[in-house]
Specification:
Shape: extended
Number of strands: 10
Distance between the termini: 45 Å
Order of helices and strands: EEEEEEEEEE
Largest sheet: 4 strands, antiparallel
Strand content: over 45%
Length: 116
């Protein structure tokens, strides 16, 4: 049996670690992200910036914040805002006539990173 090598995409040479919506993301230029709903009401085509930057790597130079980098910013463009697929939650107890059904659609914002 011949073993096949799995080909991975090469790691980006420029990237940053940002925080938004209580989560951390490793981002690079041109990447598209599905984020938690951003504050305000971002429309498609509007610009957003992320100031909570923990780490940046540019051209082999790594900058690490303690905990945040001062003056560092990642900018992006909003592609879409909406709600995700419905998640149905059902609570049921046998032999006790207890049944509760609830649905939830999580709001999201789709962002394309334009600059680090």
């Amino acid at each position: 049996m011949a073993t096949e090598k799995k080909h991975r995409k090469p790691a980006p040479t420029e990237f940053a670690v940002i925080e938004t919506g209580g989560k951390q993301y490793l981002v690079s230029e041109g990447q598209t992200l599905m984020l938690e709903k951003l504050e305000g009401d971002p429309q498609a085509g509007s610009k957003v910036s992320f100031d909570k930057v923990f780490l940046t790597v540019k051209g082999g130079k790594t900058d690490v914040g303690a905990p945040l980098l001062k003056g560092a910013k990642v900018t992006g463009e909003v592609l879409a805002a909406g709600k995700g697929d419905k998640v149905v939650v059902i609570h049921y107890r046998a032999k006790s006539r207890y049944f509760r059904k609830n649905g939830h659609r999580q709001p999201f914002t789709k962002v394309k990173v334009t600059a680090i």
